[in-house]
Each structure stands twice: as structure tokens, then as C-alpha cells.
């Protein structure tokens, strides 16, 4: 596709349920990033991949959060046993190569609401 | 990672030049300076990147003094559509991820 695609666009779930958020990066992009953004705040780093390898997961809030990118393309961010504090916009970005010299291209995000 | 400091908000009238300054006192030798723009309900969008002196593209200019402890994003003749949040990020080519701060909320008034 032309840009980074995220699905679903909106997700409403009940507390305690698991959710899976999908990111389809720009074709050929090596690096893929997950961010979380609260209203009025800047994006908060969660984790990132180069190809299929998870390079840094230091931003994942706790062990309920996990991410994978098994074939080096599509990535899934999974949140287990969701809590209300997990409600936020989850944004995925990809870049052609690793490093800050390669701009990030963001998707439109998934708005997660935990009730 | 180098920390950045930006004004929380700025206002400008249409047609004026807007300069947003970002402080990054502990910038490292290998760090680049990158600016992103974010409209409501959209993800951040890359605007410009530089290492030193001046960089210009079709959207903006980036001025970086010799000591590189700050940088200034310059938007010429802003319009209402430039109303957005602008983020300054600092990082080196081999060291991701990039950390976003709270950014500068620019409001352009008619």
C-alpha cells in the first residue's frame, strides 16, 4: 500500500479482554515502531523491530503488552487482560532503514477504548 | 538520549513567519535533529532534518547554530492549515527509537 495501514481503526473492549492491534508497514521498510499517544501528549515509544527482530521493548508498560513481527512485515501488538488505563491511541510507524536518519512514516492509529 | 525543550504553545497570524526554537543542551556528536508535524486525528509527519548550519526544503527551514545546543524551525508565511503540533527530536543514525516530547502547539489565526 501507499502508506502505513493500521487496523482496526477503533476498538472498544471490556476490561479483562485481550486485544490485538495490527500494523501493515510501507512495503520494503526495514524498521517498524509502536507508539502510544494519550490526548494532548506526544507519542510514547513502546517497542520497535528491524526486520523480524525486536530491537527494543523497553517502552512496553508491563508484561501484558507484547509485540511480534514474525515475517519482517506485518506486526501485531497484543494487550492481554486489558485495563482502563490502556485506553489510548496506538500508532505504528515504519522507516526505510534503522536510525534517526530515516524518517518515520506513521499510520492513522488504532483508538483503543477499554470500558 | 538527548532531551529536548520546546515552548508549549505559540500563536501567529496568517502570512507571518513562525520560528519555533528547540533546546537540546546535551546533544551528542552523532545526533541529528528532526522535526515532525502532527494534525489532529493524524500521525506525526516528517518535516525536516539537519545536523548543522541550515537546511531548507519546500516546507520549512531549519537553523542550527555552531554549538548545536538548539535549533529553530522556520515556517514562512504560515496559513491556517499550518495549525498543528510540532515536535523536535534528537537522535543518532544508529540509535532508535526517537523520543517525542510534548511538542509545540502552533495556532494560526486569520
Question: Would you write up a description of this structure?
Answer:
- The complex is a heterodimer of chains A (115) and B (110).
- Helix content of chain A is 0%, strand content 48%.
- The radius of gyration of chain A is 13 Å and the shape is globular.
- Chain A is mainly β.
- Chain B has 110 residues and is mostly beta strands.
- Chain B has no helices and nine strands.
- In chain B, the strands form two sheets. Chain B has a five-stranded mixed beta sheet with strand order 1-9-8-3-4, with no helix packed on it. In chain B, strands 2-7-6-5 form a four-stranded antiparallel beta sheet, with no helix packed on it.
- The N and C termini of chain B lie far apart (38 Å).
- Chain A binds chain B through residues 4, 31, 33, 35, 41-45, 48, 55-56, 59, 91, 93, 98-101, 103-109, and chain B through 31-32, 34, 36, 41-46, 49, 85, 87, 89-103.
Report on the biggest sheet of chain A: 7 strands, mixed
Largest inter-chain contact set: A-B, 26 and 28 residues
What is the element string of chain B, with H for helices and E for strands?
EEEEEEEEE
**Global outline of chain B:** globular
Give the neighbour order of strands across the main sheet of chain B: 1-9-8-3-4
Cα gyration radius of chain A (Å): 13 Å
| Quaternary structure annotation | heterodimer
Mean pLDDT over the residues of chain B: 91
How many strand units of chain B? 9
Portion in strands of chain A:
over 45%
**How many helices of chain B?**
0
Overall residue-averaged pLDDT value of chain A? 94
In DSSP terms (H or I, runs of 4 or more residues), the helix count of chain A works out at 0
Structural class, from helix and strand content of chain A?
mainly beta
- What amount of the residues of chain B lies in strands? over 45%
Give helix and strand order of chain A, one letter per element, not per position.
EEEEEEEEEEE
Question: Which structural class matches the secondary elements of chain B?
Answer: mainly beta
Question: In which range does the helix fraction of chain A lie?
Answer: under 10%
What is the first-to-last residue Cα distance of chain B? Answer: 38 Å
Radius of gyration of chain B: 13 Å
Amino acid at each position: 500500500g501507499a502508506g502505513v495501514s493500521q487496523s482496526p481503526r477503533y476498538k472498544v473492549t471490556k476490561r479483562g479482554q485481550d486485544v490485538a492491534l495490527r500494523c501493515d508497514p510501507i512495503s520494503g521498510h526495514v524498521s517498524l515502531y509502536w507508539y502510544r499517544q494519550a490526548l494532548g501528549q506526544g507519542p510514547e515509544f513502546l517497542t520497535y523491530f528491524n526486520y523480524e527482530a525486536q530491537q527494543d521493548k523497553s517502552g512496553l508498560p508491563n508484561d501484558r503488552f507484547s509485540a511480534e513481527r514474525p515475517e519482517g512485515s506485518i506486526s501485531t501488538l497484543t494487550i492481554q487482560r486489558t485495563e482502563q488505563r490502556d485506553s489510548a491511541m496506538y500508532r505504528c510507524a515504519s522507516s526505510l532503514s534503522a536510525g534517526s536518519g530515516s524518517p518515520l512514516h506513521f499510520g492513522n492509529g488504532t483508538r483503543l477504548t477499554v470500558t | 538520549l538527548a532531551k529536548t525543550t520546546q515552548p508549549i504553545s505559540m500563536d501567529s497570524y496568517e502570512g507571518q513567519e513562525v520560528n519555533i526554537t528547540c533546546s537540546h543542551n546535551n546533544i551528542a556528536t552523532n545526533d541529528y535533529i528532526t522535526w515532525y508535524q502532527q494534525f489532529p486525528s493524524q500521525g506525526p509527519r516528517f518535516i525536516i532534518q539537519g545536523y548543522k548550519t541550515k537546511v531548507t526544503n519546500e516546507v520549512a527551514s531549519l537553523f542550527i547554530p555552531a554549538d548545536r545546543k538548539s535549533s529553530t524551525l522556520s515556517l514562512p508565511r504560515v496559513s491556517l492549515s499550518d495549525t498543528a503540533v510540532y515536535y523536535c527530536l534528537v537522535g543518532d543514525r544508529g540509535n532508535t527509537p526517537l523520543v517525542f516530547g510534548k511538542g509545540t502547539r502552533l495556532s494560526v489565526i486569520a
